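Protocol step 6 of 9: fold each sequence in the batch and record its structure tokens directly after the sequence line. For illustration, a two-sequence batch is reproduced in full.

Sequence one:
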Amino acid sequence: MKYNEMTPRYQALLRRVTHLPQQILSLHGIENMTEYVLHSLCDESCLNLSKAAYFVDNPDFDCLKGVAGFSKDDEIYTCDTVLDDREHFKEHINGCAFNKRVRSLILPSPRRSMEAHDKHAHHLGGLLGMENPQFHSWTTKHDNYGLLIFEREDIQDLQGHDELLEALSILGFCPVH
């Protein structure tokens, strides 16, 4: 598909995803880079998620750790304004209840027990107050796995474009604190 043949929605999503690597480089060293990337991916102009919880599953250390959380209910930022005031974003994101709840979760690794992520995604989604959790998992560096549990307000949004969830793998380049 050629760029000019894409819908405006798809073009906006493509712009957001292709600018993320440059933004990751410009944010190198800030404490909340992972939250920023998750925030960018969840934004209306990208995947348009209402809630998302990012976990790293480390089978070697038998640990499924909550890394970052996003909830539209907590957000006051657009992705463009984050880069303008990084310190305020840090204060804001550290105060977000949903992000705190996600980061507080540390459980045994499903992959170490040879269990599928779908079972844990529904359980974790319930713990996080999600009514209809969906998930996407992928392989990351050091034989770990990324797991994103999310909700969409508009189930039809991006229907037929689920391959765009592969953009979530960019979270694997972010530090895990």
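Sequence two, same batch, same settings:
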Amino acid sequence: MRPLILKMEMTLDGFVGQPDEEPGWPTHYYDDDFSSSMLELISGAGVHALGRVAYVGMAPYWQSSDDAFAKPMNEIPKAVFSRTLTEAEADWPETTVYRDVASGMAELKAQDGGPILTYGGAGFAQELTRLGLVDEYRINVHPIAFGTGYRLFGGPMDLELKDVRRFGAGSIAYTYTSG
């Protein structure tokens, strides 16, 4: 069974987003070492899993991007979880829409292939945590504070720290597993 890895960008004060945030705020902290580490993680995924909001925002961007992250984002299959989307973006290849998170993730986990990598969308991440579906958390904490915003977890969690890595621009990457 392949694992589900939740990758999220977080502020020092514990927020993963806010209503009027600047899009792409974490990229200000992507130095060469951090970028290389994230590209390796993203490139190693067997499938990218996204909620509808993240998908709608990311699909047009990655389809027209020449960024180093564009190749794995465009070539690796995508799984989109939405109660409202009926079909995927026609131009973003290998995208499947799932209506139900629990049954869709069970189907994806049962398939052969690399890990399921999910990111973006606080609501989607909270649902994954509430359902206990996440096997590994990759939380990247950046030296910025929002003051208010969206939290990552949908409830109390016991996690076990597996790794900590510090980067030159002040970001710290934490790897946890469910406790």
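Proceed to step 7 once all outputs are recorded. Observation for sequence two: The two ends are 19 Å apart (CA to CA).
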